[in-house]
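S1.2 Input.
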Amino acid sequence: MKIFGRIAYWLVALALVTAILISLDYTPGQAVLISLVFFPCAIALEFFLPKAETIRDKVFLSLAVLVSTTLLLLLVHRLLWSPFMKSRVWFILDVQPVLVNPVFLGLILTMLALGDYAWRKWLDRRLQAAPRQITFFSDRKSVTLPVAEIAYIESNDTEVRIFTLDGRYFRNKTGISQWENLLGDPFVRIHRSYLVNRAVITSVGPDTLTASGQTLPISRKYRNTL
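S1.3 Output.
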């Protein structure tokens, strides 16, 4: 979901920058190609700027990105259009003056970087707010459960049983080690046959624990981890 959200942002950003360049008398094809130059530069600015520790480092980094963007724009114009000009004059670069204006370039890069940062943070909050779910097959039927509703998983070698907080269980052929990787935190392995949701553990003894009203064994292999 997050990946698709990021892709959607950059597609919208591409359309906006392309529209700006078309207004500067570039053809749609030229505008798209030039717009693509801004994206790696904006991503570099967004990624490296927070890592700069001092104001001087941030200024130097911003200037480096700005100069890199200008050089890339000039290179794109030279490689893609100068060879095909009727005059065949390679040193003539048909660049709109605004594209070598540092203020304009800085505004475009800042807009792209800040927009992506804000969109990414919004996606993080939205996805965290939504309950995480998992889908699996049980008795040849597709089942979707919120991960928080799974109390524990029991393996008997040939199959596993997924027990829920409300007392239901589902049979599945996926190995318990694979379930451990799929569920991740807050599930913890307590035995070769048991994977438990830490949120439902109510008491822990030397060799057993109580989870969702059930007493489950703890093996020596997993006792220290638990």
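S1.4 Remarks. Residues 133-223 form a domain with the OB fold (Dihydrolipoamide Acetyltransferase, E2P) fold (CATH 2.40.50.1020).
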